[in-house]
């Protein structure tokens, strides 16, 4: 519970009329993150601790069968990425159960961008922005224990059976040893349209090519990031981008519900990360991994979390852009000395 209590892919907000007017606004969600984690100038309100990354995406061309976006044509494009841990503490100690994130920006050959923020759990704990907000409140650490109040969390789960069900799915997929052997899921459904105008619902995941290793005991405050830095100093790391094509009855509006494993998948290509960098001006530190920055051929589904995430990403970006910057807690040079 503690490991996933803070997870989100950015947060949620007032948008599109599906929240009570005046109740959940982008500033209020950002304020709530600051209330739970404290204010840390210059850092993201969630997934504050991270490393920038660079690499490429080599498309197999197979994705073009369902999507006309140029990034799916056979060939190679530049990728800017960011590895992160959920939560609003930029100097938190790494822990095996803390949700890991991977944000990617694909620079298409036609100048269009595709941005996605993924995490290493197979479903999202909440189906609505209100549900996430309520869980964030319930999961605030209690002074002295550093953990959520079990009574408040029990009350929350009783009111949100969809979250209780999602937690069971998440627990069936225990975390791997680190970033390199983690599968990262897009979670939300999108709609892909091909050159002939046919549209299908799609979810995606980045599946690692590194062999899975059982998690080891934490060794140092930044051990997950340190292991990633050392691995990339020796070799590039690869993930297969797998597209899952939904059927008409599969839920596209509820990220807590997994699709059947029997659904058709497409190996769209390989994401290769060649290096990581301490967060600084000019790299992924200043990129907003807004899930609604989409190329022609990809559109949002009816999932209410998408517009919500986009709104609070923007609010978080605006706040940190106006604040003084502090050195990143994760320093690549320190590890490679």
UniProtKB/TrEMBL annotation:
<feature type="domain" description="Catalase core">
    <location>
        <begin position="2"/>
        <end position="334"/>
    </location>
</feature>
<dbReference type="Pfam" id="PF00199">
    <property type="entry name" value="Catalase"/>
</dbReference>
<comment type="similarity">
    <text>Belongs to the catalase family.</text>
</comment>
<protein>
    <recommendedName>
        <fullName>Catalase-related peroxidase</fullName>
        <ecNumber>1.11.1.-</ecNumber>
    </recommendedName>
</protein>
<dbReference type="InterPro" id="IPR011614">
    <property type="entry name" value="Catalase_core"/>
</dbReference>
<dbReference type="InterPro" id="IPR018028">
    <property type="entry name" value="Catalase"/>
</dbReference>
<keyword id="KW-0408">Iron</keyword>
<comment type="function">
    <text>Has an organic peroxide-dependent peroxidase activity.</text>
</comment>
<dbReference type="GO" id="GO:0004601">
    <property type="term" value="F:peroxidase activity"/>
</dbReference>
<keyword id="KW-0575">Peroxidase</keyword>
<keyword id="KW-0479">Metal-binding</keyword>
<dbReference type="InterPro" id="IPR020835">
    <property type="entry name" value="Catalase_sf"/>
</dbReference>
<dbReference type="InterPro" id="IPR024168">
    <property type="entry name" value="Catalase_SrpA-type_pred"/>
</dbReference>
<keyword id="KW-0560">Oxidoreductase</keyword>
<keyword id="KW-0349">Heme</keyword>
């Amino acid at each position: 519970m503690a490991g996933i209590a803070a997870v989100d892919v950015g947060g949620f907000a007032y948008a599109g009329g599906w929240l009570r007017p005046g109740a959940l606004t982008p500033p209020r969600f950002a304020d709530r993150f600051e209330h739970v984690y404290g204010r840390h100038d210059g850092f993201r309100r969630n997934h504050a601790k991270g490393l920038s990354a660079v690499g490429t995406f080599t498309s197999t061309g197979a994705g073009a069968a369902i999507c006309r976006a140029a990034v799916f044509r056979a060939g190679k494009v530049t990728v800017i990425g960011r590895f992160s841990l959920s939560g609003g503490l930029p100097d938190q100690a790494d822990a095996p159960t803390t949700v890991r994130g991977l944000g990617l920006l694909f620079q298409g050959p036609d100048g269009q961008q595709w941005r996605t923020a993924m995490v290493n759990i197979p479903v999202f704990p909440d189906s609505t922005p209100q549900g996430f907000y309520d869980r964030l409140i319930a999961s605030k650490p209690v002074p002295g224990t550093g953990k959520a109040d079990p009574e408040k969390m029990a009350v929350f789960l009783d009111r949100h059976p969809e979250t209780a069900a999602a937690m069971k799915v998440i627990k069936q997929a225990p975390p791997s040893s680190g970033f390199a052997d983690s599968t990262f899921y897009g979670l939300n459904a999108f709609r892909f349209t091909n050159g002939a105008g046919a549209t299908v619902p799609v979810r995606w995941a980045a599946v690692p090519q590194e062999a899975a290793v059982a998690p080891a005991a934490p060794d140092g405050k930044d051990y997950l990031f340190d292991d990633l830095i050392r691995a990339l100093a020796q070799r590039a790391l690869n993930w297969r981008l797998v597209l899952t094509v939904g059927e008409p009855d599969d839920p596209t509006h509820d990220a807590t519900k997994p699709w059947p494993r029997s659904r058709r998948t497409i190996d769209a290509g390989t994401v290769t990360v060649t290096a990581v960098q301490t967060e600084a001006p000019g790299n992924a530190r200043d990129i907003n991994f807004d899930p609604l920055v989409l190329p022609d051929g990809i559109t949002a589904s009816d999932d209410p979390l998408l517009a919500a995430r986009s709104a609070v990403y923007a609010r978080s970006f605006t706040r940190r852009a106006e604040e003084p910057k502090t050195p990143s807690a994760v320093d690549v040079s320190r590890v490679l000395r």
